[in-house]
Amino acid sequence: MTELLEPEAPVRRPIPLQAPQLPRWAPPVALFLSLAAAGLVGLLLGWGPAGIAVVAWVLFLVGFTGWAQAIEGRRKAVDRMFATLIWSTFVIAMVPLVSVTWEVVSKGHGIIGADFFANDMRGVLGETNIVTGEPGGIKHALVGTLMITLTATAMAVPVGVMAAIYLVEYGKRTRFARTITFLVDVMTGIPSIVAGLFAFSLLTLIFGAAYRSGFGGSVALAVIMVPIVVRATEEMLKLVPDELREASYALGVPKWRTIVKVVLPTAFGGIATGVTLAVARVAGETAPLLIIAGSTTVANWNVFEGRMMTLPVFIYSSVTTGGKYAAEQEARAWGAALVLVVIVMSLNLLARLLGKIFSPKTGR
Amino acid sequence: EGDSGDGGDAADLANLSGEVAGGGASSQEAAQLAWIAGFTTVAPEATVTYDPVGSGGGRESFISGAFAFAGSDSYLTDEEGELTSATERCGGEAPIQIPNYISPIAIIHNVEGVDDLNLSPEALAGIFAGKITKWDDPAIAATNEGVSLPSAAIDAVHRSDESGTTENFTDYLDAVAATQWDAGVVETWPEEYGGQGAQGTSGVVDAVTSGTNSIGYADASQAGDLAVANIGVGEEFVAPTPDAAAKILEVSPPAEGASDTALIFDLDHTTAEAGTYPIVLTSYLIACQTYSGDEAAAGELAKGYLSYIVSAEGQQFGADEAGSAPLSDELSSQVQDVVEGITVE
Amino acid sequence: MTDTTTDQPPRLDDSGSRATRAGDSIFSGLASAAGLTILLALAGVALFLVIEGAPAFTASGESAYGKDNIVVYVWPLLYGTLLAAVLAMVIVTPLAVGLALVISHYAPRRVGTYLGYLIDLLAAVPSVVYGLWGRVVLAPALLPLYLWLSDNLGWIPFFDGGESGPTHGRTIFTAGIVLAVMALPIVTAICREVFIQTPRIHEEAALALGATKWEMIRMTVFPYARSGVISAVLLGLGRALGETMAVAMVLSGAGIITIDLIGTQNPSTIAANIALNFGNASGSKINTLIFSGLVLFVVSFAVNFVGRWIASRGEVKG
Amino acid sequence: MAKSIDVSDVNIYYGDFLAVEGVNMSIRARSVTAFIGPSGCGKSTFLRSLNRMHEVIPGARVEGKIVVDAQDLYAPGVDPVAVRRQIGMVFQRPNPFPTMSIYDNVLAGNRLNSKKMKKSEADDIVEKSLRGANLWTEVKDRLGKPGMGLSGGQQQRLCIARAIAVEPQVLLMDEPCSALDPISTSAIEDLIHELKSEYTIVIVTHNMQQAARVSDETGFFNLKATGEPGHLVEFNPTAKMFANPDNAATEAYISGRFG
Amino acid sequence: MAKSIDVSDVNIYYGDFLAVEGVNMSIRARSVTAFIGPSGCGKSTFLRSLNRMHEVIPGARVEGKIVVDAQDLYAPGVDPVAVRRQIGMVFQRPNPFPTMSIYDNVLAGNRLNSKKMKKSEADDIVEKSLRGANLWTEVKDRLGKPGMGLSGGQQQRLCIARAIAVEPQVLLMDEPCSALDPISTSAIEDLIHELKSEYTIVIVTHNMQQAARVSDETGFFNLKATGEPGHLVEFNPTAKMFANPDNAATEAYISGRFG
Ligand SMILES: Nc1ncnc2c1ncn2[C@@H]1O[C@H](COP(=O)(O)OP(=O)(O)OP(=O)(O)O)[C@@H](O)[C@H]1O
Ligand SMILES: Nc1ncnc2c1ncn2[C@@H]1O[C@H](COP(=O)(O)OP(=O)(O)OP(=O)(O)O)[C@@H](O)[C@H]1O
Ligand SMILES: [Mg+2]
Ligand SMILES: [Mg+2]
Ligand SMILES: O=P([O-])([O-])[O-]
């Protein structure tokens, strides 16, 4: 470049378009070589697989970058080095995902069967109920998770959707609306345990110190859900093109009917997705329930009275109780964890599916 | 009423139904779970819940009437007016207080090459006070001839949460080795003494199991396969067996305020009685002498449940399933009499 | 409709549309009420925590779990909370930026979308499951690493390991790693969002000048996304501060202050401490724990506040 | 049913920003009036003030008089919803309701106002409107299909059908062809020709040839400078405007010397 | 330094979609070549294939030969980064780097290649390029200010300065004036006139008057129908194209009968 800038050289010499390039097979070969070298040394010195992987990675990063530097020049080498680093983050991020999935499935699948879903833990010591001989199960926790989550959803969704409608359709530029939008954002960051403490403080002030019920858990979960629902709905309503609203206004349709008949149906897929994601988020919550919903060994269908077990709390108490049957409890905890993960992931999948199914076919 | 030798009339119990709520000391949780399960074999229609909310929470909820009975690691005193309040709650009659759960606190350890460990009270206190930091310290070696102690750092594990186990353990240390242990009797571990903090009994067991050259204290019922130390009592070293633990109540004097219906003790940790294990956690049941009105049905159930717990069958079931020490025969019959005395109007 | 076929001039005044007006005002009233509810809920959270937490100030001794007063009790927990969360962010930031670049700029677009889903799956794992995994699987697996660190890098105070060296894996470092895994999806998602929004015209300007991909990213994507990344990290920090169960299950902590990340003794966090002790607490101890929850609320509110503020400022500029 | 529109001294604001200033014109009934001018000169803004669509933008307002059929649209007590029912509008990008079928799209204006209609009556309106928009033969076999499934030009005609289904007096069109291909464009231009026998039509276009082809009268809007409000420079019969404009700026614009 | 470009049998794809088909042309050095045609006919697409910018869109690819200075741009081993250095590009919307000052914007391309530059050398390049883009006098007192602070037309000239600072052989411009006001437009048109003494310039425009004013040769692209690929209909000296085109479609387009 610099020689092109010489003032005495008005005729610019074209730089060659052809530049030496590493062959396409260079990255896999370099990777293989690094792995082989690290593997050999590692086996000799007795490193574990993790050590070998780390050393191979360092070798690849340094070696491959060096190779590129030698052949393609500095800029290309830097480019390749960062590409390697950036892709590495992906591999690193997959480690916990694969590990968690593997552990949950391998440790949890054994115990799962019809009994596991049909029985509760009443009278269960060790593996089985000492009276009936039936194995213990998670029926009570499933019932609790279902009831508490449903109740929370019933509270959070109307408030959340209406608030989003206010923000997008009515408030738009008012200071009040901007304050709410901002606080909703901040509210998404409220620690769940704080939501639990809030529900506890509120309800024990009203009903006395010993108050525990599923409803308390629902209140806490609703506090967590509302901002998620508001945000999701708000985003979706904003995505509804103003053109549609204007098309409706131009037909002489009043605003509220436009919202109900045009805007909401158009955004329905997105809202359903957001609500489902919010449900998925709270279905796995533990801390607030630990504080206000209590725990029990039998199924309780009444959210307003009596303690309720939920899947997350069941997992937690199973592993932390210890004692003679710690192993059996841990096995049930892994089983319940598998069930919980499947439920939450299915909800996430369902959310995407809903989004796909109900998304209006855009013209383009 | 009849022959109450094994805890009430089986036929009576079989007719019990409904629900009763109790709760309190978490030390009893495993045993309570066992008893609740065992109770379903004799009273299939009855539902009992036990909330392990802690001794203080249990007493509080008992006084407020939310619990029909409570489990507590310590007996009621009037230091904060609890005894008076509890008496009020029970219609002016003093509440009954009976020991129902006795469990040795085992000194669990995980030291390479060391199975049998004898610890003098002083050595034990030194280790947990952070004054003895190596396994081959002379204070330990002196009582363990022939054992090859590693020259490794001691990983002393304690409860990081507030705990009745810690209270009983430090009560013991304070009584027998006050020179080494000068933090007094505490429920929450004094951090300046160092060591690894672990949450809950199971946390301590986990930490000792997965640690190296580690030692900790935990309810013996949860010690699992870990090696347990023998503790110096007089001239001998005693292992934490249920029998050895149960003995301590026999040698301990009744506490101030004990009565026919309040079988409460101040444990004599300094005993030199042969075969007595001195580090013991004793937990009591607290209930009313009379249940009436609204509470009658729950009281009936509570009485049935309590009588099951203190029956020989119940105590044995607790020992089998939760590793507690069954009450000695003498104490057992006293306790059963107290429960029999509960009336329901 | 039916009457306009007659040639009468239709009326434009509003005598006929009172129902319309009423419908509009009822509906907008409902909507604003919902907005107000949110404000009230947030205020309620603060209010009730204050009501129930305030008594902890006057009580002392026993109620503060043996500490002289509430401040001495909460301070080490706050320290542990911040330490674990900051640690998590130190781990998460480079990872999330890299991942977001993979999704936004490196992977083919369709593949990128699926990789994004994969990362989002990390967010779908409930925290109690992370707790279980961290306690049973991760912590034991990390102990050898900690031993290696204290042997080889022990001169760095973070990896001192203490007198006896690391004896277990349930350290604040492990907690930080678990928190990092849990915060990764949200930080990645926000970074990805801002990276994707880098105006194409700027990216193409760089490419048209003969920049390599990395140079293009440095010239256009990073400057454009800077405030977005900062707010993403702050929001992740907010998450990590409040995460409860995973820490409660993984960390073997006590109320101490140390910068040793892998030693035997570790600080605990406010949230974990509440979860672990609440069940056993009664009377004024509950006030103590709720007060610590109030502290957590204030801190995480502040962090989220700043994070959102930076994010919204960035939006206006971009 | 078509009506003339008298505009006097109209100023149009976005908040504090004066976008269009001092417009006076008289739009004849049953004719096509075209607005042309460079980008940003306020054609769309002015058009939207003719059926009170302008004010749906927060902070936007209009000063002056716009009289249709002896009623001032901006007089107090006039309900904008009623105004919009009588003065229909078609937008630059076709915007059928994505959740509705073709059939429902056409009826949207009637249905959304919760009119109850007999099936036969509804069918009549749909057929009449689609015929009016020259779309009937193309879609009569798939009335139940989503409106978004049509091509751009068909969508635009669907929007016109939807607008005429409520039988307005006036039809406003803002660059109705600018997103369309030449064939669809010419279909719409033909339609405009037919519609003017029944409706008063006002159309904004950036295509001068289109203005010349479809309109009877043309208004030329311009900006004095960027940031200044737009204003009406010249309003004349289209033939005169393109052959022999009164104003030099009009001539410069039409001959392509700027814009 | 300026180079001619020979295009033979070029097909351009977005994934499976063939956007432009079978283009052959020969662009003369030191001249201005304009591409015109209706929206969507592939003008931008083709222009971007001339400096391998097309392929930055995922899935996009080019078939055929584009030969500059005896080198086929699409030959194996050719480094697209090097190609883009030699064939500069100016986009429709001005796109100065928002975080950089005017000075740094001009130098952005140079900085990539030579890490270290003497201050005086850098100053020279900046002045020369800004003078070349007719912007020097307007900004010389505020080189440290952000490039985004300039007006649209100035920003566009800044982008031109940035493009010529790396001394390319060819300058591609995609509707460089369509976002600008008349005065800025004419400044850019003047600049194009001056630049053609040193550069080969290819410009896409939707404004036929502009093509007539600035270009020496014109290529007319068209679509047979929507969804069909665009193709080059006619390529001729501008004077001939506007006076007497070879092709009927060209004439229809130029006379404004569609588009
Ligand atoms: N929603 C709005 N808020 C504020 N100003 C606006 C808004 N819409 C348009 N304007 C401004 O009003 C002026 C006129 O805009 P308008 O859209 O009416 O122009 P136009 O002639 O239709 O242009 P085009 O040919 O590009 O459609 C412009 O200066 C524009 O920036
Ligand atoms: N990123 C893309 N992906 C897929 N198809 C594209 C993309 N960009 C353009 N196309 C398609 O390629 C064809 C040619 O588009 P191009 O943008 O080159 O047209 P143009 O002549 O520049 O139009 P205009 O005058 O509107 O700029 C069009 O059919 C367009 O839809
Ligand atoms: Mg417009
Ligand atoms: Mg283009
Ligand atoms: O029984 P604990 O109080 O030690 O948990």
Automatic annotation (TrEMBL), chain A:
Asked if the keyword Transmembrane helix belongs to this entry, the reply reads yes
- In the UniProt record, which is one GO cellular component term? plasma membrane
Q: Where is the ABC transmembrane type-1 domain?
A: 142-351
Give GO BP annotations, semicolon-separated. Answer: phosphate ion transmembrane transport
Main site of residence? membrane
Query: Listed GO molecular functions?
Result: phosphate transmembrane transporter activity
Entry-linked InterPro entries: MetI-like (IPR000515), MetI-like_sf (IPR035906), Phosphate_PstA (IPR005672), Phosphate_transprt_permease (IPR051408)
Give the transmembrane region(s). Answer: 51-70, 82-102, 141-168, 180-203, 209-230, 262-280, 333-354
Q: Where in the cell is it found?
A: Cell membrane
Q: Which domain of life is it from?
A: Bacteria
Q: Which Gene3D superfamilies match?
A: MetI-like
Pfam families (alphabetical): BPD_transp_1
Q: Which UniProt keywords apply?
A: Cell membrane, Membrane, Phosphate transport, Transmembrane, Transmembrane helix, Transport
Give the CDD domains listed for this entry: TM_PBP2 (cd06261)
Its annotated function is as follows:
Part of the binding-protein-dependent transport system for phosphate; probably responsible for the translocation of the substrate across the membrane.
What protein is this chain from? Phosphate transport system permease protein PstA
| Lineage of origin | Bacteria, Bacillati, Actinomycetota, Actinomycetes, Propionibacteriales
Q: What is this protein's gene name?
A: pstA
Automatic annotation (TrEMBL), chain C:
- Which segments constitute the ABC transmembrane type-1 domain? 78-307
Gene3D superfamilies assigned to the protein according to its UniProt record, in alphabetical order: MetI-like
Does this entry carry the keyword Transport? yes
Q: Which GO terms describe its cellular component?
A: plasma membrane
Tell me the GO BP annotations in alphabetical order: phosphate ion transport
Q: Where are the transmembrane segments?
A: 26-50, 70-102, 114-133, 172-191, 289-311
Membrane topology note: Multi-pass membrane protein
Tell me its family.
Belongs to the binding-protein-dependent transport system permease family. CysTW subfamily.
Q: What does this protein do?
A: Part of the binding-protein-dependent transport system for phosphate; probably responsible for the translocation of the substrate across the membrane.
Q: What is this protein called?
A: Phosphate transport system permease protein
Q: Which organism is it from?
A: Nocardioides silvaticus
Q: Which gene encodes it?
A: pstC
UniProtKB/TrEMBL annotation, chains D, E:
**What NCBIfam families has UniProt attached to this entry?**
3a0107s01c2
Show the InterPro entries listed in the entry. AAA+_ATPase, ABC_transporter-like_ATP-bd, ABC_transporter-like_CS, P-loop_NTPase, PstB-like
PROSITE patterns documented for this protein:
ABC_TRANSPORTER_1, ABC_TRANSPORTER_2
Family annotation (SUPFAM superfamilies): P-loop containing nucleoside triphosphate hydrolases
Task: Return the protein name.
Answer: Phosphate ABC transporter ATP-binding protein
Q: Which keywords does this chain's UniProt record carry?
A: ATP-binding, Nucleotide-binding, Translocase, Transport
Taken from the UniProt entry, a GO cellular component term is: membrane
Q: Which GO terms describe its biological process?
A: phosphate ion transmembrane transport
Q: Name one Pfam family in it.
A: ABC_tran
